[in-house]
Structures are given as C-alpha cells and as structure tokens.
C-alpha cells in the first residue's frame, strides 16, 4: 500500500500504513543526505508492508536544501539540535495516532542511520535500525540505549571499521544488538536503486562503492525484520 504526503509540524513528510486494521507499532524513517526521495519513499512503503505505521519527515524541506543539510549534519554531529527535535516530533505524532500501539522505533539510512544511533540512547524509543550510519563521537551516548540492529558494507571506505566499533560499544554497555558487516556491499546497499547525483560519482564509486547489492540486502532485511518483530512488534 502506497503512502500519502503529510506534514510533521512545518516539514513535509510521507506516511505509510499497513493493510487492514491497526493498531500497529510505529516507525520513524530518517532519510539519507539526499532527502526524502523515491528510494526513501519506497523503503517507507516497505516497512508499512512489514506491519509498521511508518512516518518519514523530510528534514530538508524547511528552506534551502543546502542550508537545511548543513544544519542537519551539525545536529547529527552534536547529538542535539532542531533535526533531532524534528525526529522526536515525528515519534510524538505516531504515539498520538489511534492506529499506533504507542511503541515506536527508528530506522535510518546513511545520515539517517547516524540519527538512529543518536536516538537509540534517548528515552521513548523501543528499537533502532541503523544502516551504514555514523557512530556517535562519544560511545557513552549509547549507554542505556534501546535494542539496536545495524548493517554496514565492507566496501564502504568512509565507514571502515564502524561495524566493529559499534559492536564493541554496544557489548560493553549491555545493549541488545545485532551488528553485521557485509563484505560484498558498499554504502546504501539497501536502496532499491542507485540515486547518487552526478557530482558525487567519484566518491560514490571509489570511496563509498555505493548502490544496491541484492544478496547482502536480502540477508540484512531478514535480520531487520526478525529484530523488529522481537523488540518492537512483540
């Protein structure tokens, strides 16, 4: 079932509901640095089809996209700021929806994967799905985090070693987790299509090795679905 355009405060958004009658657990989907594009809408629809009321706010829709992106990346690095507040507002919107059970998780991709790790350590979240996301600068930000499932590509030089560092940080703090690095995958390997803009082509090809990798993606989705079924839907 395709989602519908919506608003999250003064931001554009996209909301997708499962078929049938709820209530369902909720998911906030946080997009890549390219914004709420067709790949991110397709992934929002996918999570709804898996049984989650899924809301994706467009963090870059408040003004000029380069300005919004810079402010959003600053909030990611600091672990607080307007973008974090926007994601929290999306969670509150789902909690208030009669179709939601009140349990809400966060799933993020690329930039959004970093936000998923930031949000994991904050109260109110039941599960976090971090896909090729930057790690918090301070590992203690993960103390007391909700359960985390994370996936990385072994060919992604930008995030080389991130999976191992995240595994160690979560293990040391007793956080339930499932972290895996896929040797055949690069960055953005869960995307349905390669949407890298032309100006990013050199970095995408030689550093990120970005783009779909179906074999790795199939296994990652199996893990994500099982993890959410255990920690969010149950």
In words, what does this structure look like?
The structure is a single chain. This protein is α/β, with parallel strands linked by helices and 234 residues long. The chain is 38% helix and 21% strand. The chain has seven helices and eight strands. It has helices at residues 38-49, 65-78, 82-96, 111-120, 162-172, 201-208, 214-233; strands at 4-8, 11-16, 24-30, 53-57, 100-109, 128-131, 148-153, 177-182. Strands 1-2-4-3-5-6-7-8 form an eight-stranded mixed beta sheet, sandwiched between helices. The protein is globular.
What is the overall shape? Answer: globular
What is the H-and-E element order? EEEHEHHEHEEHEHH
The Cα radius of gyration reads 16 Å
| Major beta sheet, strand line-up | 1-2-4-3-5-6-7-8
Short description:
This protein is an alpha/beta fold and 234 residues long.
Task: Please specify the SSE layout and strand pairing.
Blueprint: E1 4-8, E2 11-16, E3 24-30, H1 38-49, E4 53-57, H2 65-78, H3 82-96, E5 100-109, H4 111-120, E6 128-131, E7 148-153, H5 162-172, E8 177-182, H6 201-208, H7 214-233
Parallel strand pairs: 3-4, 3-5, 5-6, 6-7, 7-8
Antiparallel strand pairs: 1-2, 2-4
Fill in the keyword field for this structure.
single chain, 234 residues, alpha/beta, Rossmann fold, eight-stranded mixed sheet, 7 helices, globular
């Amino acid at each position: 079932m395709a989602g519908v355009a919506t608003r999250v405060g003064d931001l554009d958004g996209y909301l997708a509901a499962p078929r049938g009658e709820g209530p369902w657990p909720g998911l906030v989907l946080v997009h890549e640095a390219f914004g709420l594009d067709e790949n991110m809408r397709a992934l929002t629809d996918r999570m709804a089809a898996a049984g989650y009321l899924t809301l994706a706010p467009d963090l870059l829709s408040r003004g000029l996209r380069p300005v919004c992106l810079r402010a959003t990346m600053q909030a990611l690095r600091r672990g607080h700021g307007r973008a974090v507040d926007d994601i929290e507002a999306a969670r509150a919107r789902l909690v208030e929806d009669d179709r939601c059970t009140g349990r809400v998780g966060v799933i993020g991709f690329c930039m959004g994967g970093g936000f998923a790790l930031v949000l994991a350590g904050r109260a109110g979240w039941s599960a976090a799905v971090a896909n090729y996301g930057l790690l918090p600068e301070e590992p203690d930000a993960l103390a007391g985090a909700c359960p985390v499932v994370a996936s990385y590509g072994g060919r992604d030089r930008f995030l080389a070693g991130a999976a191992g560092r995240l595994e160690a940080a979560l293990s040391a703090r007793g956080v339930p987790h499932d972290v895996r690095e896929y040797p055949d995958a690069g960055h953005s390997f869960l995307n349905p299509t390669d949407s890298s803009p032309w100006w990013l082509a050199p970095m995408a090809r030689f550093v990120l090795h970005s783009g779909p990798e179906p074999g790795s993606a199939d296994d990652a989705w199996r893990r994500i679905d099982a993890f959410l079924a255990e920690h969010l839907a149950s």
